[in-house]
Design a protein that fits this description.
The structure holds two protein chains of two kinds. By secondary structure, chain A is mostly helical. In chain A, about 70% of the residues lie in helices and about 0% in strands. By secondary structure, chain B is an all-alpha fold. The radius of gyration of chain B is 24 Å and the shape is globular. The chains are: A mainly alpha, B mainly alpha. Chains A and B meet through α1, α3, α4, α5 and α6 of A and α1, α4, α5, α6 and α7 of B.
Chain lengths: ~300, ~290
Amino acid sequence: MTAGPATANPTGFRRRLTFSQRQALWGYLLVLPAIALLILLVAYPFLYAIFISFTSRIVGDAGEWVGLDNFRYLSRTSSFEKAVRNTIMLVVVSDIAKLIIGLGLALILNEQIKGRGLYRAFILLPWAMPGFVAFLIWRLLFQPIGGGINLILTETGIYPEIIDWLGQRSTALPAVIIASVWRGFPFWCISFLAALQTVPPDLYEAAKIDGANAIQRFWSVTLPHLKHVILVVTLLSSIWTANSFENIWIMTQGGPSDATMVFPVLAYFGMQTQRLGEAAAVSVAMVPALLILVFVVTALLKEDD
Amino acid sequence: MATVSPSSSYPRRRWAPIAKSVALYGIIAIVIVIILFPVYWMVTISLKIPRDIYRTPSLWPDLVTMDNYRILINEKKFLINIRNSLIVAGTVTATSIVVSSFAAYSVVRFKYRFKGLIGRVILFAYLTPVSLLFIPLSIIIARLQLGNSLFGLIIVYLTFSIPLSTWLLSGYFRGVPAELEEQAMVDGSTRMGALFKILLPLSAPGLVAVAIFTFTGAWNELLLALIFITSEDLRTVPLGLNYLITGDVFLWGPIMAGAVLSSLPVITLYFLAQRFMVHGMTSGGVKG
């Protein structure tokens, strides 16, 4: 990083430490508060969660080592099975929707259009507002009484009957996914737009001279250039979506009858019943999948350094 | 930026550019309506009387009232929620900026043995979800007797704010050429002097962006607040609104009034610093 040969010694240096030793010491000192906090508040709780998930801990009693009992018990409950299915659905469907909308919109905004800055500001709006506000609004929009969606559908005659979107099993998860996509797509769009603007224009010119049409130019120039950012954004967003609590909590609290149950909400309910061992097992059950995602993201981000 | 310009050189395709821009602006218009409609709905509901919300719903408010805001502030004590959120988010932001500036300076500019490992720990911490940590954290916080206090909440918020701000600040610091600090040190400045006099001032836009990200992150957080705060007078903004929807009767008017009031500061911050934010999201957070 910095050029630090011994010859660059500042004046007035008397102690026996060499320049690089002194530099290392400063380096450790400066990073120490952050690392201490992270070990105490992230690393230790992370390992502690794994430990608790193997015990019969409840509030007020540390319990004892029960091996895989909590996981065995969970795998037999229908709530857990639904949490697995719903979490996968939520992540996969909303990732695909956000990718298509985000990329499509980024390509449009990358064209020579007037007022791009203004549109970009508008597009940021769902991402800029607090998540709990976004999901409160969508909960209201989907209400049978007072909700805007039903009003639009009945007034325009698209669908004449009032639908209780969040109250019936078949529509609750799609409704939550719609709200999550609305809230999340700006991040994708803006990230793609920034990457698009770094594509060298000569590449397009060259492709054009070679006779490539717009679609061929997209496949041969744009997409390869965006591959990296698409991968990083997809992985990051998957991690966030798989662990999102407030979208489900505010809109449905996992209901009706577990139709929108996901891991974080199930773990929260588990904690409320004071059975900490089982609750911890819920969150720990997704650690393997999470670790794979995290390792891939880390490798991709390190590649840039 | 220069992109594919429509092929106007072919005479028989002269309509193509027009059709193309009609399609482009049409799609943009639809997207903007989809983005703005929920926001519009929030604002109108917050200004409607109950009869207009439930019995005779319409797209436009017939009668504009400030009653919902009055109920929210006088009966639901929303200003106390705002005060608590300001204390928590403000303290978390200040602490994170200081701790993270030092950490990012160390990771970006110093040479030492375990630097790679430390960078990795910060990135892992950034990616570790709160939903995985809240159960052990609740045990730790109870043991420290910090449960149901704003101070305890501030401590647990550092779990997500410090990795995020360190990660983003490292991205900004990397963008400042090291030569400037080296020059200052040749001229007699100390290592720390170079940080305060050269690097931090040059990264000012980055610091603003990181401060806004950290502040909004803490302002918006619901799960940890739900677990750690039990007293009514310690509730933060998301928590206050959460308890308005878990009651028996949903007062959508006051709830939307609360939604408006709690998004205003955050949205204002975002738009004031929009340029820095986009840069931060893409070059610091996601480097492409």
